[in-house]
Structure formats: structure tokens, C-alpha cells
Amino acid sequence: MSGHSKWATIKRKKAITDAKRGKLFTQVIKEITIASRMSGGDPKANPRLRLAIDKAKAANMPADNIKRAIMKGTGELPGTVYEDVTYEGYGPGGVALIIESITDNKNRTVSEIRHLLERHNGKLAASNSVAWMFHRKGLIRVTRSRYDEEQLLTLALDAGAEDMSTEEDVYEIYTTTDSFETVKQALEAKGIPMEEAEIQRIPENMVKVEGKDAEHVLKLMESLEEHEDVQNVYANFDIDEKIIATLNL
Questions:
Q1: Which of the listed CATH numbers 3.40.50.300, 1.10.10.200, 1.20.1440.230, 3.40.50.720 matches domain 6-74?
Q2: What CA–CA distance (Å, rounded) separates 147 from 188?
Q3: Dihedrals φ, ψ of 133, to 5°?
Q4: What is the per-residue pLDDT across 110-163, written as a single tens digit (0 to 9) for each?
Q5: Longest dimension (CA), the chain
């Protein structure tokens, strides 16, 4: 499974600006609100809410912000009504895209997403036209420098993980959606801090992009990530590290 998340690797290496931290707060508040509205405000009984709260804490979001977002979702406080909307599309070079968003105005969001895609040589696609290329998996990242690979692999597999790969500075542990929470809890029980832990869409096959297509697809990914309604963007592209270096990303 290694190499699935070229964009995730790029994002991790980029500096986090105040503006992007603010955008992260907005994303997480929306996620907490909609998770609470759909399945209740108790994180013990609501895995989606539990993950959103974990992300909020990792971003150092104040506890009061988290509490208010939950209360807005459960209706205890007035708030905006959000909806989950997933868009599918194609980027330069035939790259498949899944764009997960949370919005209070679907017409506005789809219009803006379409504009971003077309501006960067992409296009919206019909529902289920690319979703089959991706599989939902749990992904947990642990910093390499702090743990022995063999010991971590044994712990993860014993807890129910499917696989583990070694990237430049992190271990990436893969799970099914059902075993994700069990593996996560096993790491927590051993006091192993996780750089990231969430359910992601993993592409089955990768598309190699080069030249102008590589530049356009990276700029498209950045533009989509910066959109206020977009929560996650998944793509099945692979780009040579040398090309990435020349684009100063």
C-alpha cells in the first residue's frame, strides 16, 4: 500500500500557517457538528465524533469550542445546518479524485468545486464513476525515530492491523474500518503517540503524472484543500519527488 498518499506526504512537509490552522479549526468544527447531529453527542457511542474530537485536540482546539460544536449538532444550541456531500471527478492526466465536503449550501459548493476543477484542467464526474477505485481503510501514522519497526509491526498486527509500511519519517499502519479503533486503542495503551489516525480512502491503483500535468494536479489539490467546505481530497496520482522539488511545494 506504500505510495498511496503522495499528497498527504506533501501536506505533512509543508509549513502550517495561521490561515491554514484557522481553516483546520473550521473543518473540525463542521465535522464535530454533523457527527453529533447524525449519531448523538456521546463520543463513546459515536466513532465519527470520537475521531473528530481527537483531531480537534491534536490541533489544540479549546475544549469550549468542541463542546459548543457538539451542542450545536445535538440541537442544544442554535447553529448552521450542515450536510455531507461527496464529489467525484478527474484531474489532469486522468487522475481520479474524491472530494469530501461539509456544506450549508450544496448549490454554491458544487458550483465552486466545478470551477476549481475546470480552472486546473479537471472536471466533475458522475456519482460512483471513480469511487470504485478507492477503498476505505484506517490509517495510523507513527513517527519512525521513536519506535522499533519490528516491535511496532508485531503490536499492530496482533491488534488486528492489515499491514504496515515504512515511509521517510513515519510508519503507516493500515487497518480495516472495523479494526481501526481496536488498533488505535492498542497503541494508546502502550503510550505510543500517533501523528495521525483516521479513516481514509486508499486508491487501488496509481496514475503516474509528469510535466505540466504534474504541476496542474498539485495546484488543483492545493486549491481544493483551501476551499472552506472541503474536508478531504483523495487522488490516485504518483509524482516523482524531483518534480515536486522543482515546484517548491
A1: 1.10.10.200
A2: 14
A3: -80, -10
A4: 999 999 999 999 999 999 999 999 999 999 999 888 788 999 999 999 999 999
A5: 52
